[in-house]
Amino acid sequence: MGPDDLLGILAILALIGGLVLWIYSAIHSSKHYGASGRRSFVISLVIFLAVIGILYVVIVVPTLGCNGFLCGLGEILLFIGLTGLIFVIWPILFLAYVRAVLKKTAVDVKNEDIIDSEI
Question: For the residues 27-34, what does the mean pLDDT come to?
Fold first, then answer.
């Protein structure tokens, strides 16, 4: 088992971990924060896809016209690496956002519901 095999295993584990994080962040935001959590998740997903699209346009598209052997390979590998990194880090940042921002909103809404039910 060489270093290439370990790198492949690490990449697969990162991909699985990223998928688990995305699924967990979707379930957590929907379960704990309702419609605003789902809306925030969808907005976050759209922004994520836009960032990946911008990276593709900026990094990969300029190298598509070259004809040399392994021409543009570095840029394509850079795009794959950045996409993988963003794929894993984005849901972690989204969960931090949900817990920090939407938690305040959820507490305010619950307090208003309690006050309204007592009247």
Answer: 85
pTM of the model: 0.76
Return the domain boundaries, the chain. Answer: 3-108
Assigned token pair, 60: 């990969």
d(CA 84, CA 115): 46
Q: Which of 100, 99, 90, 106 is nearest to 35 (CA)?
A: 106
Which one-letter amino acid corresponds to residue 113? D
Per the CB < 8 A criterion, the answer to whether 60 and 79 are in contact is yes
CB 53 within 8 A of CB 29: no
Residue 40 CA, chain-centre distance (Å), reads: 12
Amino acid occupying residue 94: F
